[in-house]
Design goal:
With 381 residues, the chain is α+β, with helices and mostly antiparallel strands. The protein folds into 3 domains: 2-165 and 178-190, Metallo-beta-lactamase, Chain A (4-Layer Sandwich); 215-276, SH3 type barrels (Roll); 282-362, Alpha-Beta Plaits (2-Layer Sandwich), CATH 3.30.70.100. The chain is 28% helix and 29% strand. The chain is built from 10 helices and 21 strands. The strands form 5 sheets. Strands 1-2-3-4-5-6-7 form a 7-stranded mixed beta sheet. Strands 15-14-13-12-16 form a 5-stranded antiparallel beta sheet. It has a 4-stranded antiparallel beta sheet with strand order 8-9-10-11, with no helix packed on it. Strand 8 (127-129) and strand 9 (134-139) form a beta hairpin. The protein is elongated. Bound molecules: zinc ion. Zinc ion is lined by residues 67, 69, 143, 162.
Protein backbone atom coordinates (compact mmCIF):
# COMPACT_ATOMS: atom_id res chain seq x y z
CA UNK A 1 0.00 0.00 0.00
CA UNK A 2 1.31 3.44 -0.79
CA UNK A 3 -0.07 6.86 0.06
CA UNK A 4 1.33 10.03 -1.43
CA UNK A 5 0.72 13.22 0.52
CA UNK A 6 2.04 16.77 0.73
CA UNK A 7 3.60 17.67 4.05
CA UNK A 8 1.61 20.27 5.98
CA UNK A 9 3.42 23.66 6.04
CA UNK A 10 5.93 22.40 3.47
CA UNK A 11 4.07 21.82 0.18
CA UNK A 12 7.38 21.30 -1.63
CA UNK A 13 7.91 18.11 0.34
CA UNK A 14 6.11 14.95 -0.73
CA UNK A 15 5.66 12.17 1.78
CA UNK A 16 5.33 8.60 0.52
CA UNK A 17 3.77 6.47 3.16
CA UNK A 18 4.47 2.81 2.58
CA UNK A 19 2.64 0.08 4.42
CA UNK A 20 2.51 -3.68 4.43
CA UNK A 21 -1.05 -4.89 4.68
CA UNK A 22 -2.37 -7.91 6.46
CA UNK A 23 -5.92 -9.09 5.76
CA UNK A 24 -6.43 -5.85 3.86
CA UNK A 25 -5.41 -3.58 6.75
CA UNK A 26 -2.25 -1.48 6.90
CA UNK A 27 -0.09 -3.22 9.41
CA UNK A 28 3.40 -1.82 9.56
CA UNK A 29 4.41 1.37 7.87
CA UNK A 30 7.44 3.42 7.00
CA UNK A 31 7.93 6.65 5.08
CA UNK A 32 10.06 8.08 2.31
CA UNK A 33 10.25 11.73 1.25
CA UNK A 34 10.85 13.54 -2.00
CA UNK A 35 11.86 17.17 -2.23
CA UNK A 36 13.42 19.03 -5.15
CA UNK A 37 14.83 15.89 -6.79
CA UNK A 38 16.16 14.52 -3.53
CA UNK A 39 14.74 11.22 -2.30
CA UNK A 40 15.06 10.36 1.40
CA UNK A 41 14.81 6.58 2.00
CA UNK A 42 13.02 4.00 -0.14
CA UNK A 43 10.79 1.85 2.08
CA UNK A 44 11.02 -1.93 2.26
CA UNK A 45 11.63 -4.60 -0.38
CA UNK A 46 8.00 -5.68 -0.52
CA UNK A 47 6.72 -2.19 -1.30
CA UNK A 48 9.49 -1.53 -3.87
CA UNK A 49 7.41 -2.29 -7.02
CA UNK A 50 4.65 0.14 -5.99
CA UNK A 51 7.21 2.68 -4.89
CA UNK A 52 8.93 2.58 -8.26
CA UNK A 53 5.62 2.77 -10.14
CA UNK A 54 4.76 5.91 -8.14
CA UNK A 55 8.10 7.56 -8.85
CA UNK A 56 7.89 7.06 -12.63
CA UNK A 57 7.70 10.46 -14.30
CA UNK A 58 9.27 12.24 -11.33
CA UNK A 59 12.93 13.20 -11.29
CA UNK A 60 15.32 11.85 -8.72
CA UNK A 61 18.85 13.25 -8.81
CA UNK A 62 20.11 11.84 -5.54
CA UNK A 63 19.03 9.45 -2.87
CA UNK A 64 19.91 9.70 0.83
CA UNK A 65 19.44 6.79 3.23
CA UNK A 66 18.97 8.00 6.82
CA UNK A 67 20.26 4.60 7.95
CA UNK A 68 20.71 1.06 6.74
CA UNK A 69 17.63 -0.65 8.20
CA UNK A 70 15.85 -2.85 5.66
CA UNK A 71 12.65 -0.77 5.78
CA UNK A 72 14.53 2.31 4.54
CA UNK A 73 16.68 0.87 1.74
CA UNK A 74 14.26 -1.64 0.15
CA UNK A 75 13.91 0.02 -3.26
CA UNK A 76 17.46 1.44 -3.41
CA UNK A 77 18.59 -0.85 -6.23
CA UNK A 78 15.54 -0.16 -8.41
CA UNK A 79 15.74 3.61 -7.85
CA UNK A 80 19.39 3.55 -8.84
CA UNK A 81 18.52 1.49 -11.93
CA UNK A 82 15.66 3.77 -12.98
CA UNK A 83 17.26 7.18 -12.37
CA UNK A 84 20.97 6.37 -12.37
CA UNK A 85 21.30 8.53 -9.27
CA UNK A 86 23.90 8.52 -6.54
CA UNK A 87 23.07 6.97 -3.18
CA UNK A 88 24.45 8.89 -0.19
CA UNK A 89 24.64 7.32 3.25
CA UNK A 90 26.75 7.17 6.39
CA UNK A 91 30.10 5.48 5.78
CA UNK A 92 29.13 2.58 8.08
CA UNK A 93 25.88 1.98 6.19
CA UNK A 94 27.61 1.37 2.87
CA UNK A 95 28.65 -2.28 3.44
CA UNK A 96 25.05 -3.10 4.37
CA UNK A 97 23.69 -1.40 1.27
CA UNK A 98 26.13 -3.51 -0.71
CA UNK A 99 25.08 -6.71 1.10
CA UNK A 100 21.79 -6.23 3.01
CA UNK A 101 22.02 -9.73 4.47
CA UNK A 102 24.85 -8.47 6.71
CA UNK A 103 22.20 -7.15 9.08
CA UNK A 104 20.49 -9.78 11.17
CA UNK A 105 16.73 -9.65 10.72
CA UNK A 106 14.26 -11.09 13.14
CA UNK A 107 12.01 -13.56 11.27
CA UNK A 108 8.95 -11.30 11.42
CA UNK A 109 10.93 -8.39 9.96
CA UNK A 110 12.07 -10.62 7.15
CA UNK A 111 8.44 -11.62 6.62
CA UNK A 112 7.03 -8.10 6.60
CA UNK A 113 9.81 -6.17 4.90
CA UNK A 114 11.73 -8.71 2.84
CA UNK A 115 15.40 -8.54 1.91
CA UNK A 116 16.45 -5.47 -0.08
CA UNK A 117 18.49 -5.96 -3.25
CA UNK A 118 22.13 -4.83 -3.06
CA UNK A 119 22.81 -1.22 -4.04
CA UNK A 120 25.90 0.90 -4.26
CA UNK A 121 26.29 3.97 -2.08
CA UNK A 122 28.97 6.62 -1.47
CA UNK A 123 29.82 8.34 1.83
CA UNK A 124 27.60 11.34 2.53
CA UNK A 125 29.24 14.76 2.98
CA UNK A 126 28.47 17.41 5.56
CA UNK A 127 25.97 19.04 3.22
CA UNK A 128 23.63 17.76 0.51
CA UNK A 129 22.60 20.30 -2.09
CA UNK A 130 19.63 20.33 -4.44
CA UNK A 131 18.69 23.00 -6.93
CA UNK A 132 16.86 25.15 -4.40
CA UNK A 133 17.88 23.85 -1.00
CA UNK A 134 20.85 22.98 1.18
CA UNK A 135 20.59 20.21 3.73
CA UNK A 136 22.95 19.87 6.65
CA UNK A 137 23.86 16.28 7.44
CA UNK A 138 23.78 15.59 11.18
CA UNK A 139 25.27 12.43 12.64
CA UNK A 140 22.61 10.97 14.92
CA UNK A 141 23.67 7.51 16.07
CA UNK A 142 21.46 5.71 18.56
CA UNK A 143 18.64 4.09 16.64
CA UNK A 144 21.45 2.57 14.60
CA UNK A 145 25.16 3.43 14.56
CA UNK A 146 24.91 4.68 10.96
CA UNK A 147 21.97 7.05 11.43
CA UNK A 148 21.98 10.58 9.96
CA UNK A 149 19.39 13.35 9.82
CA UNK A 150 19.00 16.01 7.14
CA UNK A 151 18.30 19.57 8.23
CA UNK A 152 17.31 22.46 5.97
CA UNK A 153 18.17 25.52 8.12
CA UNK A 154 16.41 28.10 5.91
CA UNK A 155 13.10 26.25 5.98
CA UNK A 156 13.46 24.47 9.31
CA UNK A 157 12.81 21.06 7.74
CA UNK A 158 14.22 18.05 9.54
CA UNK A 159 14.23 14.60 7.98
CA UNK A 160 14.73 12.56 11.11
CA UNK A 161 14.48 9.00 9.82
CA UNK A 162 14.13 6.83 12.90
CA UNK A 163 16.26 9.09 15.18
CA UNK A 164 13.60 8.72 17.81
CA UNK A 165 11.25 5.77 17.98
CA UNK A 166 7.73 6.72 18.72
CA UNK A 167 4.35 5.78 17.39
CA UNK A 168 4.31 2.57 15.46
CA UNK A 169 7.93 1.54 15.30
CA UNK A 170 8.27 0.10 18.76
CA UNK A 171 10.21 -3.05 18.20
CA UNK A 172 13.55 -3.34 19.90
CA UNK A 173 16.29 -4.45 17.60
CA UNK A 174 19.96 -5.02 17.55
CA UNK A 175 22.18 -1.97 17.58
CA UNK A 176 19.95 0.33 19.65
CA UNK A 177 21.93 2.62 21.89
CA UNK A 178 19.80 4.63 24.25
CA UNK A 179 22.60 7.01 25.26
CA UNK A 180 23.26 7.61 21.61
CA UNK A 181 19.59 8.43 21.05
CA UNK A 182 19.63 10.94 23.93
CA UNK A 183 22.81 12.59 22.66
CA UNK A 184 21.44 12.73 19.11
CA UNK A 185 18.14 14.26 20.19
CA UNK A 186 20.00 16.91 22.16
CA UNK A 187 22.07 17.61 19.09
CA UNK A 188 18.86 18.13 17.11
CA UNK A 189 17.68 20.56 19.80
CA UNK A 190 14.70 18.40 20.66
CA UNK A 191 13.81 19.17 24.27
CA UNK A 192 13.94 15.71 25.68
CA UNK A 193 15.21 14.87 29.14
CA UNK A 194 16.94 11.62 29.86
CA UNK A 195 14.00 10.77 32.04
CA UNK A 196 11.47 10.89 29.19
CA UNK A 197 13.71 8.92 26.89
CA UNK A 198 14.32 6.27 29.53
CA UNK A 199 10.59 6.05 30.24
CA UNK A 200 10.08 5.77 26.49
CA UNK A 201 12.64 2.99 26.32
CA UNK A 202 11.11 1.12 29.25
CA UNK A 203 7.71 1.44 27.59
CA UNK A 204 9.34 0.13 24.46
CA UNK A 205 10.56 -3.01 26.20
CA UNK A 206 7.29 -3.67 28.04
CA UNK A 207 5.22 -2.88 24.99
CA UNK A 208 7.25 -5.29 22.96
CA UNK A 209 6.85 -8.11 25.45
CA UNK A 210 3.34 -7.68 26.75
CA UNK A 211 0.90 -5.03 25.86
CA UNK A 212 1.95 -3.07 22.83
CA UNK A 213 0.85 -3.43 19.25
CA UNK A 214 2.11 -6.98 19.07
CA UNK A 215 -0.09 -8.10 21.95
CA UNK A 216 -3.06 -6.40 20.29
CA UNK A 217 -2.09 -7.96 17.02
CA UNK A 218 -1.87 -11.43 18.58
CA UNK A 219 -5.26 -10.88 20.19
CA UNK A 220 -6.65 -9.81 16.80
CA UNK A 221 -5.44 -13.06 15.28
CA UNK A 222 -7.15 -15.00 18.10
CA UNK A 223 -10.42 -13.12 17.48
CA UNK A 224 -10.26 -13.83 13.76
CA UNK A 225 -9.52 -17.53 14.26
CA UNK A 226 -11.89 -18.30 17.15
CA UNK A 227 -14.68 -15.85 16.22
CA UNK A 228 -16.29 -15.27 19.63
CA UNK A 229 -18.43 -12.65 17.90
CA UNK A 230 -19.02 -11.36 14.42
CA UNK A 231 -19.88 -8.02 12.82
CA UNK A 232 -23.46 -7.09 13.76
CA UNK A 233 -23.50 -8.95 17.10
CA UNK A 234 -24.47 -7.05 20.23
CA UNK A 235 -21.69 -7.65 22.75
CA UNK A 236 -20.04 -6.48 25.92
CA UNK A 237 -16.25 -6.20 25.53
CA UNK A 238 -13.93 -4.89 28.22
CA UNK A 239 -16.99 -3.59 30.07
CA UNK A 240 -18.38 -1.69 27.06
CA UNK A 241 -21.63 -2.64 25.36
CA UNK A 242 -22.33 -2.14 21.71
CA UNK A 243 -22.91 -3.58 18.25
CA UNK A 244 -19.78 -4.83 16.51
CA UNK A 245 -19.01 -2.68 13.46
CA UNK A 246 -15.59 -3.94 12.52
CA UNK A 247 -12.99 -6.40 13.76
CA UNK A 248 -9.59 -5.00 12.87
CA UNK A 249 -6.21 -6.51 13.45
CA UNK A 250 -5.36 -4.19 16.36
CA UNK A 251 -8.78 -2.94 17.49
CA UNK A 252 -12.43 -3.92 17.58
CA UNK A 253 -14.92 -1.17 16.75
CA UNK A 254 -18.32 -1.01 18.44
CA UNK A 255 -21.26 1.34 18.16
CA UNK A 256 -22.74 1.84 21.62
CA UNK A 257 -26.56 1.80 22.02
CA UNK A 258 -26.47 5.63 22.15
CA UNK A 259 -24.46 5.62 18.91
CA UNK A 260 -21.01 6.43 20.25
CA UNK A 261 -18.13 4.81 18.39
CA UNK A 262 -15.97 2.71 20.73
CA UNK A 263 -12.52 1.58 19.64
CA UNK A 264 -11.31 -1.18 21.92
CA UNK A 265 -7.76 -2.56 21.64
CA UNK A 266 -7.94 -6.30 20.95
CA UNK A 267 -5.62 -6.99 23.89
CA UNK A 268 -8.38 -5.68 26.18
CA UNK A 269 -11.04 -7.64 24.30
CA UNK A 270 -9.39 -11.01 24.88
CA UNK A 271 -8.05 -9.94 28.28
CA UNK A 272 -11.49 -9.80 29.89
CA UNK A 273 -14.75 -11.71 29.57
CA UNK A 274 -16.68 -11.37 26.33
CA UNK A 275 -20.48 -11.27 26.50
CA UNK A 276 -22.27 -12.02 23.25
CA UNK A 277 -25.97 -11.22 23.47
CA UNK A 278 -26.71 -12.16 19.90
CA UNK A 279 -25.15 -15.56 19.44
CA UNK A 280 -27.91 -17.56 21.17
CA UNK A 281 -30.67 -15.63 19.44
CA UNK A 282 -32.70 -15.09 22.63
CA UNK A 283 -32.34 -12.99 25.76
CA UNK A 284 -34.08 -12.79 29.09
CA UNK A 285 -35.62 -9.46 30.05
CA UNK A 286 -35.07 -8.90 33.77
CA UNK A 287 -37.50 -6.55 35.49
CA UNK A 288 -38.12 -5.91 39.17
CA UNK A 289 -41.58 -4.62 40.10
CA UNK A 290 -42.27 -3.52 43.65
CA UNK A 291 -45.83 -3.31 45.06
CA UNK A 292 -47.04 -2.00 48.39
CA UNK A 293 -47.29 -4.21 51.49
CA UNK A 294 -50.98 -3.33 51.67
CA UNK A 295 -51.82 -4.69 48.21
CA UNK A 296 -53.15 -8.09 47.29
CA UNK A 297 -50.15 -10.06 46.03
CA UNK A 298 -52.22 -12.59 44.10
CA UNK A 299 -54.02 -9.81 42.29
CA UNK A 300 -50.75 -8.04 41.53
CA UNK A 301 -49.27 -11.22 40.06
CA UNK A 302 -52.39 -11.75 37.93
CA UNK A 303 -52.19 -8.23 36.54
CA UNK A 304 -48.52 -8.62 35.68
CA UNK A 305 -49.17 -11.99 34.00
CA UNK A 306 -51.97 -10.47 31.94
CA UNK A 307 -49.63 -7.77 30.66
CA UNK A 308 -47.07 -10.43 29.68
CA UNK A 309 -49.74 -12.51 27.96
CA UNK A 310 -50.71 -9.51 25.88
CA UNK A 311 -47.25 -9.18 24.28
CA UNK A 312 -46.85 -11.77 21.52
CA UNK A 313 -43.12 -11.10 21.19
CA UNK A 314 -42.58 -12.98 24.45
CA UNK A 315 -41.52 -16.56 23.75
CA UNK A 316 -43.40 -19.49 25.28
CA UNK A 317 -40.15 -21.40 25.80
CA UNK A 318 -38.38 -20.97 28.19
CA UNK A 319 -41.43 -20.08 30.32
CA UNK A 320 -41.86 -16.68 31.93
CA UNK A 321 -40.87 -16.34 35.59
CA UNK A 322 -43.01 -14.10 37.81
CA UNK A 323 -42.09 -14.56 41.46
CA UNK A 324 -41.82 -12.68 44.72
CA UNK A 325 -38.10 -12.21 45.21
CA UNK A 326 -37.76 -9.85 48.13
CA UNK A 327 -39.58 -8.34 51.09
CA UNK A 328 -37.85 -5.00 50.81
CA UNK A 329 -37.91 -1.87 53.03
CA UNK A 330 -40.95 -0.28 51.48
CA UNK A 331 -42.18 -2.77 48.93
CA UNK A 332 -42.73 -6.40 48.07
CA UNK A 333 -40.64 -7.07 44.98
CA UNK A 334 -41.54 -9.30 42.06
CA UNK A 335 -38.99 -10.46 39.53
CA UNK A 336 -40.48 -10.57 36.05
CA UNK A 337 -38.37 -12.52 33.55
CA UNK A 338 -39.78 -13.20 30.10
CA UNK A 339 -37.63 -14.49 27.22
CA UNK A 340 -37.56 -12.68 23.89
CA UNK A 341 -35.68 -12.69 20.61
CA UNK A 342 -32.48 -10.63 20.95
CA UNK A 343 -33.73 -8.16 18.37
CA UNK A 344 -36.93 -7.53 20.39
CA UNK A 345 -35.10 -7.02 23.69
CA UNK A 346 -35.31 -3.25 24.09
CA UNK A 347 -38.80 -2.89 22.62
CA UNK A 348 -40.19 -5.49 24.99
CA UNK A 349 -38.21 -4.07 27.91
CA UNK A 350 -39.67 -0.58 27.47
CA UNK A 351 -43.11 -1.81 26.56
CA UNK A 352 -43.39 -4.03 29.64
CA UNK A 353 -42.05 -1.42 32.03
CA UNK A 354 -44.70 1.03 30.89
CA UNK A 355 -47.47 -1.58 30.47
CA UNK A 356 -47.03 -3.06 33.94
CA UNK A 357 -47.09 0.35 35.61
CA UNK A 358 -50.27 1.35 33.77
CA UNK A 359 -52.00 -1.96 34.47
CA UNK A 360 -51.15 -1.84 38.18
CA UNK A 361 -52.47 1.74 38.37
CA UNK A 362 -55.69 0.71 36.66
CA UNK A 363 -56.22 -2.08 39.16
CA UNK A 364 -55.57 0.14 42.16
CA UNK A 365 -52.27 -1.48 43.01
CA UNK A 366 -49.61 0.97 44.10
CA UNK A 367 -45.90 1.01 43.41
CA UNK A 368 -44.75 2.61 46.66
CA UNK A 369 -42.19 5.33 47.18
CA UNK A 370 -39.47 4.47 49.67
CA UNK A 371 -40.95 5.14 53.12
CA UNK A 372 -39.31 5.99 56.38
CA UNK A 373 -40.64 6.55 59.90
CA UNK A 374 -38.84 9.52 61.38
CA UNK A 375 -38.72 9.95 65.16
CA UNK A 376 -38.05 13.54 66.22
CA UNK A 377 -36.42 14.30 69.58
CA UNK A 378 -38.64 16.55 71.69
CA UNK A 379 -41.46 16.55 69.15
CA UNK A 380 -42.24 19.14 66.49
CA UNK A 381 -42.50 22.75 67.64
ZN1 LIG B 1 15.20 1.98 11.56
Amino acid sequence: MIRVERVANAPQVVKLRLARTLLGKPFYSTAAYWVDGLLVDTGCAHTAPQFIATLKGWHVDQLVNTHSHEDHIGANARVQELFGCQILAHRDALPILQDPKLQSLQPYRRLFWGWPKPSHGVPIDEWVETENHRFQVIDTPGHSPDHVCLFEPDRGWLFSGDAYIGGQDRALRQGYDIHGIIASLKKLGIPMTEFTVVIGAAGLAIGFALQGSLANFAAGVILIIFKPFKVGDFVELAGQKGTVREIQIFNTILNSPDNVRLIIPNGQVTGSSIKNYTVNGTRRVDLVVGVSYDDDLKKARQVIEQVLAGDDRILSEPPVTVAVSELADSSVNFVVRPWVKTTDYWDVYFNLTEGIKLALDKNGITIPYPQRDIHMKGGVS
